[in-house]
Amino acid sequence: MKFNLKSALKLAALAVLVPLAGVGIWGATANAEGALPVRAPAPTVDESNTASSETAVFAGGCFWGVQGVFQHVTGVKSAIAGYAGGTVPNPTYEVVGTEKTGHAESVQVVFDPHKVSYGQLLQIFFSVITDPTTLNYQGNDYGTSYRSALFTMNDEQKKVATAYIAQLDAAKVFKDKIVTEVTPYTNFYRAEDYHQDNAYTEKVNPGYLLYFDEPKIADMKSLYPSLWMEKPVLVFDSNYHS
Length: 242
What we know:
242 residues, alpha+beta, Peptide Methionine Sulfoxide Reductase, Chain A, 7 helices
C-alpha cells in the first residue's frame, strides 16, 4: 500500500469504525475491494502435473493480503512477497512505487500439486484475493504495481489460466469483464523483510491489514474449508502461528 492523504483519511476513519462494527461482520459477506468475495466455480480444464512441487506467481493488489491468504492453503509450502514482471533488477519498494519499473506487487507460491492444483489456487485467487475487473488498481491502491496478473511459469499454467478466465467470463461470475493479465514469467524479486508475514505480525499498518487483508483470510476459511490450513506457512518462524 502506498501512503497518501486519501489512504491516511480512510485509515483514520477505520480506526473509529472497525472497533464499533466488529471484525466478525466481514466474514464471507463483505470485502473492502468491492466485487469480492465470490464463490468462483471450480476450473473445468484438465491439468497434467506429476511433479512433487510447483511454483506459481500471483499479483492481486497489495501483496500482504495475497500472501496472507495463500499461507493458509493446504498444500502450499511457501508464499513469498515480492515484485514481478518489471525491467529493473533488484527493485526496492520505493522504486516500484514510482510506477516506472513495470513491476507488480506479487507473491511467489510453491505448492504440492498433489494436494492443491494450480486451478484451485486460481479459484481462491479470483474468489477472495483480487477484483479481476479493475484495471491497475485494487481497492484504495492505484497504479500498475497493483494490477491483477498471473505470471505463468510454463505452457500448462498459461493454458489453465486463460481457460479459467474464459470460463469465469462466460459464466458472468463478475458483472464486468475480467482484465487480469496472463503473461509469461520473466522475473521475481523477494520484497524487503518488513513486507513478509504482515497479515500476522502487523508490523507496518495494522489498520490497513484489518480492513483490507484479514477479511480475505476469513473469506478463504469460510468459502474453502476443505483447503483451509489453520497454521499458516510463514516466511519467518514466529509466535504468530494460529
